[in-house]
């Protein structure tokens, strides 16, 4: 990561009045992956895509310390809900919420993603490889339950998707690939995984 990217990370944290930088592997295992925040430059591109509108609700799976929720709520004026299973990291998100400039539009839930009932107003679900594809399958089933109970436009967004995720998503009849937000130019190395894949539910 270049110096300017590091500066951008700390500048945004400072502006949003939160602390979200750094990676945390302490409770990672074969199913639940380490906490690593989405880079702010990627979130800027997502916010500028126009997909997320004011007052819509974004659900962030594996929210960690809440960066995605705080940033998108601040930039797009959406509501956001972050799901986190690790109590210690969840406490960090809650602490951030007390000071965050967009705290009123964000909320966090301590829960296992596969057991979480998706609220009926959720329009977007965001994933940065938070867990194994086995858990993802159960989470997508939960999202579909919510969709069938209250049919509405829902989009699933996958940043830096793994091959396992892509293989699973492409075989789901209820999911339709609809967009790709290219982020390769934001980083060195021209990594083909530097993108956000967007799928429509229904």
UniProtKB/TrEMBL annotation:
What Gene3D superfamilies does the record tag this protein with? Answer: Vaccinia Virus protein VP39
Residue spans making up a coiled coil are none
Any idea which UniProt keywords this protein has? Answer: Methyltransferase, Transferase
| CDD domains reported for this sequence | AdoMet_MTases
Origin superkingdom? Bacteria
List the Pfam families hit by this protein, alphabetically: Methyltransf_31
Q: Where are the transmembrane segments?
A: none
MF-aspect GO terms: methyltransferase activity
Q: Which residues form the Methyltransferase domain?
A: 53-117
Identify the SUPFAM superfamilies for this entry: S-adenosyl-L-methionine-dependent methyltransferases (SSF53335)
Q: Which GO terms describe its biological process?
A: methylation
Instruction: Provide the protein name.
Output: Class I SAM-dependent methyltransferase
| Lineage, highest ranks first | Bacteria, Bacillati, Bacillota, Clostridia, Lachnospirales
């Amino acid at each position: 990561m270049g110096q300017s990217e590091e500066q951008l990370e700390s500048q945004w944290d400072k502006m949003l009045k939160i602390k979200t930088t750094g990676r945390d592997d302490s409770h990672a295992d074969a199913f639940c992956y380490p906490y690593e925040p989405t880079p702010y430059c990627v979130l800027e591109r997502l916010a500028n895509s126009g997909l997320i509108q004011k007052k819509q609700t974004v659900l962030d799976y594996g929210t960690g310390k809440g960066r995605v929720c705080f940033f998108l709520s601040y930039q797009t004026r959406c509501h956001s809900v972050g799901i986190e299973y690790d109590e210690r990291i969840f406490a960090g998100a809650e602490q951030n919420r007390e000071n965050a400039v967009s705290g009123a539009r964000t909320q966090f839930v301590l829960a296992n993603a596969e057991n979480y009932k998706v609220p009926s107003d959720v329009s977007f679900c965001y994933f940065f490889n938070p867990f194994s594809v086995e858990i993802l399958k159960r989470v997508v089933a939960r999202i579909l339950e919510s969709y069938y109970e209250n049919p509405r436009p829902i989009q699933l967004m996958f940043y830096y998707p793994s091959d396992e995720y892509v293989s699973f998503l492409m075989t789901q009849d209820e999911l339709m690939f609809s967009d790709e937000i290219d982020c390769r130019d934001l980083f060195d190395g021209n990594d083909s995984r530097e993108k956000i894949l967007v799928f429509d539910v229904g």
